[in-house]
Amino acid sequence: MAVTSIAQQDSVEIQKKNDTIRIGGMIILKKEDSTQRRHVSVTIGNRRKAGNSNISTASWIIDLGFANWDDKTNYASATTDGYIVNKPGSPSLAENDLKLKTVKSVNVNIWFFMQRLNLIKHYVNLKYGLGLELNNYRFKTALSMKEGGPNPYDLSQNINHPFIFRDSISFSKNKLAADYVTIPFMLNFRTNPSNSDKGLSLSAGVSVGYLYSSRNKQVSERGKHKNRGDYDLEKWKFSYIAELGLGPAHLYGSYSPNSIFEKGLNLMPYNIGIRLSNW
User: Fold this and answer.
1) Is the pLDDT of residue 71 over 80?
2) Measuring CA to CA, which residue among 182, 186, 241, 184 is closest to residue 209?
3) 175: β partners
4) Rounded to whole angstroms, how far apart are CA atoms 162 and 229?
5) Strand, coil or helix: what is 177?
6) Taking 90 as the threshold, does the pLDDT of residue 180 lie above it?
7) Who contacts 217 (Cβ-Cβ below 8 Å, separation ≥6)?
8) Dist. CA 273–CA 264, nearest whole Å
9) Domains plus CATH for the chain?
10) 270, 253 contact by CB (below 8 A)
11) Which terminus of the chain is more solvent-facing, meaning fewer CB atoms within 10 Å of its CB: N or C?
């Protein structure tokens, strides 16, 4: 009886001292608030700290940057082949005529999603995604682009392919827009996989884009005109791409070794800007 009494007393004391009772995977937690009311909560199963997933996904990543091109056009050949049309008695179009307004030539990328696949302990990853690449190339000079038709300086002559020429008026806005559906592939290196806000992140690889829209938009005394056409632009765009992240700040860049035009003009496009993402 004495042993039983002591055992019962110890059992009561233990229950009074402990507010938590664990039965296997069940946890019973007793609490008392300021009104002296007792509350009991029951948790079934143990909480576990989630580890790094082998696949990480981010949606709706935005890039804001500048668009430009590296001009390697042979202007003599392009003129002979009729892709550049010059006004008789006026200076021929040259490299300076196709230079862009740097600040107003913009690149905006909208990535529907990007995924990072773990390759080596989250320090080395494969990064890929899907999105839209939107480029606006703003001309400095009064250039116009045509899908074909009468020679603007000799209406009796018809040109049966796209061409570019110096127009007779000035434009307040004059740009070539080229938009692509793009898939990037990159190798990603991270110095601090456990915290994306700290450490260095470097990615490099390639992207493949398909042209789904192109147009020459002009604003002048003639009004606003959005002339849609392919202008002999290459349907496929292959680029080398890179991304540099330092904590939450990210920079991106791309360069295509191929001209955006199939024939005539030889212009290699490139972009650089900031990536709005801490992933």
Assistant:
1) yes
2) 182
3) 138, 217
4) 9
5) strand
6) yes
7) 173, 174, 175, 177, 224, 225, 226, 227
8) 29
9) 2-44 (no CATH), 55-276 (2.40.160)
10) yes
11) N
